[in-house]
């Protein structure tokens, strides 16, 4: 790939259009060159890798405006290709951090150059002026001692009251979206970070949090009786709510207090352990509206499949995350979820790691006697040796995955002209769970992002919809889109439709979910080859963190996982003493200049260190 993060990536608008075009093309890339086979010895075998990513299916995109008028429009402020990291790496990385560049433009995060409009890098969030505040765990006094000085950079959630919230939204054309395409950072996978989740703890522990900036999710929404309404979460929200009666407020607070320490009161729920959480709620003297809020907006679990214990655990997790960084349990990384893998790439680069873009791999080389993997052979006929190999599931060929049964995730991304729930402030980050439209259908998670998240242009919203697949993404999600948004492109529209936000552009696609695949399902993999999955459908990131730590501990059982790093200025490199054997590269044909890989050398590291010191 020519971008970071695989299916965790973020794209500019033009970059996403290129990604869509690439995934609509079903032709495999056949490599007729077999010179690499000369590098395989007699006592060695090979495990061929997949030539094409098949994790994305049923891609459909729609423009609800005049698309023809935008044919000759280009993104504003397009920049020439950035220099590859090498002799001029320090200069290139330093230029990348300058304030003159558009705030959503790519940054070198420990590796090479990106074409304008490609996915991947975005400007380090901490370089944004006037939009950051230092938040520590002191916001939650009850947890202050446990978290000490841990901190994250959060973007301000305050916003000036909207002067046009009651008026008709400004008309945004497709031409403007294309022209301002670099203002978009569109995630392939839609997630939020629980403020007490495993990823936040890891970001703080490893100090990777210094490479990113976050914004609070400002509100939790519910869809009930055809309307979108805000859900009171915290104690203050409950008692300030006008939509709940005083009796309902007492009911809700009593139930939420019970959920915080439900383990201490097993007599309250043990008779319902084999029942669904929805059935349990119906016995708790909660009104139908409170049951709906708890089930779909607080626990955010399935009405039919979630057990009582699972629902109580989910509710407790939600409540424990309140108050650490804001009035909701969630944070969102500025410039998109795709920033997170790039932040870890940057830390890796500081300690000499190399991240290669546009560098296909042909096969794994296996020793026939020991059965262990010895090396890989890349597209350029270069053999690279190592002791351990970590392979993302999509690289494995069909012969290895014969016994694997994959699930699918249905995804939709919309660009809209206004929020699903207008308030005095336009700068809202909202999460909404829409209950199943029909029996047997899953609930749909909707995340709506405003322009201050640096994921879309001004006067637009970026909306992500996600659910486990039952059919194609469009079949799964379009009924929900029709309930919440206006898809009518004609001028004459009913009043009911006029009240809804208008969709300007949309894309649907199905993404493979390999998170539940057991390693034993893969055929013929050596013991030192570890498989990691793509994104899972859950709202948080716990699955990815657990998987990374599990693989790490299998390889290095005595080492600490992501320990706090030393200061970059304390690291001493002596590159002259490194031999070819130590680097793992053998004497093989040079990589053609036109296909050179991106390497984060120690010179590039100097630029990163310089930028960190300036911060």
UniProtKB/TrEMBL annotation:
Q: Where along the chain is composition biased (Acidic residues)?
A: 571-580
Domain RAE1/2 stretches: 409-536
Q: Name one GO cellular component term.
A: cytosol
Instruction: Using the UniProt annotation, give all residue ranges assigned to the region (Disordered).
Output: 87-166, 557-615
Q: Which Gene Ontology biological process is one annotated for this entry?
A: vesicle-mediated transport
Q: What is its main location?
A: cytoplasm
Intracellular or extracellular location(s): Cytoplasm, Cytosol
Give the record's family classification: Belongs to the Rab GDI family.
Q: What is this protein called?
A: RAE2 geranylgeranyltransferase
Q: Which organism is it from?
A: Thinocorus orbignyianus
